[in-house]
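Notes to self after the call with IL:
- keep both proteins in one doc
- input above output, always
- annotate only the second one for now

Protein 1:
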Amino acid sequence: MSNETKQDVFDEVRYKFRNFKNEHRHGMHVSPDSVDHYLSDALKRYYAALPDDLPVIPECVSKEIRDSYGKNSLLDELAWANQDALPSSEVSKWINNNESIFAEAWSRGLWIVEETGKVTSYDK
């Protein structure tokens, strides 16, 4: 899985077109075919890129989601965190203080691990 976000693709396209404009200004010719090819590739990358607004969660909470998803429901996880019945009190406390972020990560199945900055999912 690539860690490229939609914003990364957009920023690169914007940069590339500034260069095209500068090349044209200096008498260099950029063929329409090369622009079309570049845009086609950029659009494919944009559709495949990660959303820009993934939730960021601690590594211990990431592990809890990966270990529990498919065995427990989101409601169970929130209830157990509220009872401090999860394997780690640190995890329970974080979930209780960040319920909406936890629920978003759980529901999306994709999040960023705070300590590493890596995009993670149920499978990783």
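Protein 2 (the one to annotate):
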Amino acid sequence: MRTSTVAVIATVAALACGTARAEVKDSVANGFTIENSQVVPVDADTAWNALVNDVGRWWPKDHTWWGDASKLSIQPRAGGCFCEINGAQQARHMTVTFVDPGNTLRMTGGLGPLQGMGLDGALEWRLAKADGGTRITLWYRAGGYTPDDLRKFVPVVDQVQGLQLGGLADYLRAQAKAKK
């Protein structure tokens, strides 16, 4: 992105209005933890497949570096890349660090403007059997040194996490509806 961090945060906040909010588990000057979950009417294998193989179909395009979610990919293996490749323009959003297919995908790195701020985090997608399908939980803990108080970024990250999980949940609900 060629805009400043402040402009990115303002844009994200404007785009995220009206979406479900994630739960802020904790927030201090140098870090935070956010967790959000939704139940979708599909089994865990279907949810997993969409998570890792269809990221370009459900990830919000407004939260990519070059405005095209189809350029995103997740390599579901230790050391794999959650990357965005647009020809010579390339970004490693996160590195896959743990894979338990149908259960957990863990990645590390700083998403969006957090990356440029030198911050790091652990993000987990957790899948569990639930009444009516699968509960998908998106958990993100980020932190590190910054002269800024990270608590001021939490509302924006909170909203963006809701958009990301909501995109996957909506995609899976549409798939389930189409099969009926």
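Annotation: Helices lie at 5-16, 44-53, 55-58, 113-116, 154-179. The two ends are 40 Å apart (CA to CA).
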